[in-house]
Specification:
two-stranded parallel ribbon, globular, about 10% strand, two-stranded antiparallel ribbon, single chain, mainly alpha, about 180 residues
Length: about 180
């Protein structure tokens, strides 16, 4: 993700840590402990207000931005079912799939739309307060400043945390495609 290199590097570090932890727990005989990596798409939290930036403007997430409840639902599901990975927000899932199928296509998409879409028109200088080294007063909230733009639901995440519904949708789609093929 352009403009978020330090954040992305730390996320990759967490991914590597979880992969190692999972194997170490298994070797130590703790096979009943699940280790899940919950990966949120852009979420409407105060992250963008607290972020240190040198853009000259307040940053925002790469659209679409989702409401925090989507991540909370994914975390609750992960705590109960321990999937290896859980993406919160369908756009994040789409980005991961695109990256796996065609890294060059993802580079082109990010190169074309990943810069301006992450900037507001609200000025923010390098001397404005940020949360890099200390917490910021008045930022003890869950939702960020983009509630009007944020998407309240993610159908793909909902399907992931409701596997029976997910399989039903897949089965219905397969039946519909088979019926259409038989009619042609």
């Amino acid at each position: 993700m352009p403009l978020q290199s330090a954040y992305c590097a730390s996320k990759h570090g967490v991914d590597g840590f979880l992969e190692s932890l999972r194997v170490e727990l298994i070797r130590e005989g703790w096979k009943n402990i699940g280790v899940s990596n919950v990966m949120p798409a852009a979420i409407n939290t105060p992250f963008f207000t607290k972020a240190r930036t040198k853009l000259g403007v307040k940053p925002k997430g790469f659209p679409p931005v989702y409401q925090p409840g989507i991540v909370a639902d994914a975390i609750l599901y992960s705590a109960e079912k321990a999937p290896r990975e859980m993406v919160a927000g369908g756009a994040g899932k789409g980005m991961l799939l695109t990256q796996r199928l065609s890294p060059r296509l993802m580079d082109a998409v990010m190169g074309r739309g990943g810069f301006g879409s992450q900037m507001t028109e609200e000025p923010k200088s390098t001397s404005d307060p940020d949360g890099l080294f200390a917490s910021m007063k008045g930022q003890d909230r869950v939702e960020g400043d983009f509630s009007e733009e944020a998407t309240p639901r993610s159908p793909l995440t909902w399907l992931d945390i409701h596997p029976t519904a997910k399989w039903s949708v897949r089965a219905a789609t397969l039946v519909a495609l088979t019926t259409l093929r038989a009619k042609s």
